[in-house]
Amino acid sequence: MPDLSADLTNRMCSHLCDCKLLIIDEFSMVGRRQFYQLKPVGDSYVFSSGRANQLQNLGQSLWEGFSIFELTTVMRQRDDVAFAVALNHMSSAVMTPEDVQLLKNCEVKPERQPPSSAIHLFQSNAEADAFNTTAILFKPGDSLTASAIDNCSGDGPQGKKDEFLLQFKKKSPNETLGLASVIILKKEVRYMLRINLDTSDGLVNGAVGKLKRVDQGESLNTEPFPCVYG
């Protein structure tokens, strides 16, 4: 079981800090590792009920309820059979000279760089973030830096909270459920949402749009205005 994220750990501590009793029904569904960790958690009493081998009495193996449908056509490369064959040979380490030459023809050389508007694929999130930052800075217009305002809820010394927030800001968005500490904003630049903001309005994870205007609090004539995405 992976470690909980810092944000989730903080929320669980806030919700369960007053918990005095844990009652677990059907403890046969609790893994051995977690089961032996239950009693020390929070110094609370634990009551478990149910039969330890109950899961074995639920029925036949689930696999017997499935049917197999074998796919014989590679849909993604169905219009390019030679490329599909080369990929299969590469996965099996049996590439022919023709396969190698076909893939080499797809290589990008310094004199054949793709257009800046093309989608770029990277091996790591760090490389993708670095490319995105550079691409935004090279776009025309003024840049604005939006820094997240974080707070730590729950009881505890303020010094510990400040220390936690300082460590939290050093984490990458992949460790904070897609939430970045700093975002560079520039009008007419395309951005992709990494979390669900409002599913009813289409603001979901993966949605792409251009930033049309930035709300900096108030306009020059003190009239508030909204932030519009298009």
From TrEMBL:
Protein name: ATP-dependent DNA helicase
PANTHER family linked: ATP-DEPENDENT DNA HELICASE
Domain of life: Eukaryota
Alphabetical list of InterPro entries matching this protein: P-loop_NTPase, PIF1_helicase
Species per Swiss-Prot/TrEMBL record: Oedothorax gibbosus
